[in-house]
Amino acid sequence: PRFANFDLSAPVYPVALGDTTPDRDLTIVQVYSNNIAYLGDQTGIQVDISAFNLPNRSATVTVSAVEDGGGLETVDQQVIRLSEGDFFTTLDFSLPQDRVGLRQYRISVTQVSGEKSYRNNRKDFYIDVIDARQIIALLYDHIHPDISAIKSSLESNKNYQVEATRFRDFKEPIASFDLVILHQLPGKRTNIAPFVQRLDELQIPRIFILGAQSNYRLVNQVQDLMSYTPKSNASNDVQADVNSSFSLFTLPEDLQLKLRQFAPVQAPFADYQVNPAAQVLLSQRIGKVSTEFPLLLFKDQGDYKTAVFAAEGLWRWRLYDFLQHDDHQLFDLLLSK
Predict the structure, then answer these.
(1) Cα 243 from Cα 274, distance rounded (Å)
(2) How far apart are CA 225 and CA 300, in angstroms?
């Protein structure tokens, strides 16, 4: 009043009205969660709860999924014990994501007698659940232990779904796949050139795995990373040397060292020619002799990627990894890369 712009000669005596004592209240202060989650994940959330002047009371904190019709499905609950004076706690919850789409959730705490307001006993939040799985077609012409090794390894990653089938039985729409692995295809009696042309049109990445049943002439036609000409029907037992200048992705140093010790795989005894545009990650080592023959190489075509593993026997690597380390982590890491 002393600064008011009016002419007043009388003194002013202000009187405060109301009770400054904080009201009894139980409040959901904040909910922390990611806006996006992936199908099959367990999404963690944190909930901050505060209360004042509600001693020796208990309350139940409930996480519910709000269904399309407005109904509530309880996901998780925790009971908290309130203390005298100021109370604050942070609770952790885990929400399973089993359905794609925008999911609405509600955090609620039970209403305690004597609260000032119940409007802050509830908060809604939303999580967009998306399906990030990559669908992989693993196609082959002949039964081979590599098929099981590759499928088991890739499916250890929950974001990969693998469909393994004989090439002649493959009837799925190829456009629905994110990657195609062709084990010893094209084969000696299986020309897949029209199929590969379709992959080109759809710009779908592919991996060729060579072996004794591969038709080298057709292999040389359907990819341009490398060409090879067998000198006989024989094969070489080869191990892997890691190319330190490879730049498309990185391998952990531990994996690079252990790869050199993995059991030999069988590569065609052949002359090899590598496209200068291709990048070689692994080259063949025969006994103690390092060669420039490619074992695993990649090429980015611009619209899609192509890789060639020039040997069969990946199942040996998976078993060797388990023999040495009691798990398949290194082998699985290599395939996921």
Answers:
(1) 14
(2) 10
Q: How far apart are CA 100 and CA 39, in angstroms?
A: 6
Helix axes 314-325, 329-336, angle to 10 degrees: 140
Range 65-76 burial, b when 16+ CB lie within 10 A, else e: beeeeeeeeeee
Q: Which residue has the tokens 């400054």?
A: 20
Structure token digits, residue 147: 């098929």
Quick check: helix, strand or coil at residue 65? Answer: strand
185 close to 312: Cβ distance less than 8 angstroms: no
| Token pair listed for 327 | 């798990």
Residue range 12-36, pLDDT digits in tens: 788 888 877 778 899 999 999 999 8
**Alpha carbon distance 33, 53 (integer Å):** 29
pTM of the model: 0.71
Distance CA 269, CA 145 (A): 21
The phi and psi torsions of 57 (rounded to 5 degrees) equal -110, 160
Angstrom distance (rounded) from CA 74 to CA 58 = 19
Please report the DSSP string for 306-336 in residue order.
EEEE--B-HHHHHHHHHHHHSS-HHHHHHHH
